[in-house]
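Notes continue from the previous slide.

Worked example: a multi-chain complex. Inputs as given:
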Amino acid sequence: MSRQIKSIRGMHDILPEQTGAWQWFEAQVRETLSSYGYQEIRMPIVEQTDLFARSIGEVTDIVEKEMYTFEDRNGDSLTLRPEGTAGCVRAGVENGLLHNQQQRLWYAGPMFRHERPQKGRYRQFHQIGVEAFGMEGPDIDAELILLTARLWRRLGLRNVRLEINTLGSSEARAAYREHLVDYFKAHAEVLDDDARQRLETNPLRILDSKNPQMRAMIQEAPSLLDHLDASSREHFEQLQCLLRAADVPFTINPRLVRGLDYYCRTVFEWITDALGAQGTVCAGGRYDGLVEQLGGRHTPAAGFAMGIERLLSLLEADGGLPMAPSPHVYLMLAGEGTGSAGVELSEQLRDQFPGLRLQMNCGGGGFKAQMRRADRSGAQLALILGETELAEGRVTVKPLREGQTEQHTVTQEALAHHLAQALDLATAETRPTEND
RNA sequence: GUGGCCGUAGCUCAGAUGGUAGAGUCCCGGAUUGUGAUUCCGGUUGUCGCGGGUUCGAGCCCCGUCGGCCACCCCA
C-alpha cells in the first residue's frame, strides 16, 4: 500500500450509518416546505466568481478569503458556491421566475468555504435554503419563521431559541453605518486591532465584540434602533405581532447583524447552546435589494438557510438519530440448485410486494455464516431455501426477533400470505400522477 | 489566518524512565456435517499519519509536514 489518498481537509464522506438520518431529515424538510407551497429549484454548484463578489459583498470574509475560486480552461473565473441565495436569485432572474411574480423556492446541497474546520464547520457542508420573492410585507417574514418552528417541532428538536432584529432599509442602514464609523473613529484609541480592521469591512460587527476593554465605548455607540426609518420600524413591529399571535417565542437582539451585505430589515437566527462555538443552526433575513443588484427588476425577497450537519448533530445530542431501515427478510440458500431458485423466488416476491426489503444471500457461505448474516442484517425474518424445501416447493420462515412465533415451513404459494401478515406489506404501489 | 490538545489493527484503545507492538471488537473456521445475538477453541489483520534528525537502538525524544478535535475569527 503506497501513500493513501485521503479526502480533502474539511470535506467528509457521509457513511451508510448516517445516510438513513440524512434521508429522514430531508424528507421531513421536503414535506414541511411542500405544506407551505414551496417548490424545489436546483442550481449548479459552480458559478461565475462575480456573482458572489457582487451579492455577498467584496469585503466580507467569505469573498475575501474563503471562496474556492479557480480558472476555467477558457480563462473565466469560477467559484464553488459558498452559499445558495446568490445562485438562486441568478437562476430566478435568468429564467424569468421573478418577473412580476411571487415565488416560494427551496434548494438543498453542498456549499464550500475555505475555513479552518472544526465541529459544525466544514469546508464542504450542506444547507437547505428557502427563498421567497415578490412579497414585501412582514407576513412572509413571519411565514418563513413559522415554517422553521414547525419543522423543529416535527423533528422533535428542542434546545433552539429564536433571535430577531431589524437592520432597517438599505438606505437607513447605510446612513447608520456612516454614523457608526464616525463614532468609532472618534474613539479610535479604544479600538483593538480586530475592530480597526472591521472599521473598513463590517463596522456593525464591532458592536458584537467580546473584548471587555471596548464594552463601555460600545454601550455608548449610536444604536441602530434610533436610526430606523419609519417603515422598517413598522415592518418589524408587525412581524413581532405575527410571531406573538402564532405563539413563537423570540428575543430581540439589537446586535444581531448578518455577515452578508445584502441583508436589510428583518434578520433572524435560530441558535443553540448545545453545539459549542457553532451555535447558529438556521439563519436568514430580508434582502430587498439583491434581485435588482443582480440585474433583475426590483423584487422584495426574504429567505434563510439551515445547516444540515449542525441540525443533525443537534438532533443526535438530543436523543439520537433514526437509522436506515433494515431489510424485512433475509433469504438463505443452502444446497444444490438453490442458487437459481433463490433468485427466482426473490424476484417474484419483489414483484408481489414492491415495498418489500428482501436481502438475498450472495457469495456463498456455510449455513451458520448465512444465519449470522441474516441476524446482522437486522431482518425480521429469515427465509430458508434448502435442498429439502426446494424438493417440496416450500420455504422455511424463521422469525429472528423477540416475541415472534415459532419457525415453520410453508409452500411457496402460502408464503405470500405469511409475509403480508407478518410484515404488514402493501401489495400495490401507485405512481403519483394527478394531484392526490 | 492565529493558538492549545491529539494521530498505534477496519473500529475503540493499552503500550512507566527509549530495547524491535498488544487487548477488546469485527471478520473467518470449528465445538453443533441445516439454525443467529450468549459460551468455548483456533486463525487473519499494522511501513505505530508522513518525512527528516538524535541514538548502538525511536511507537516513545527533537524538527518539519499532513490530518483530527477545541477555541479565536467568521459563519450554516
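Summary box: Chain A has a mean pLDDT of 90. The CA atoms of residues 342 and 377 of chain A lie 18 Å apart.
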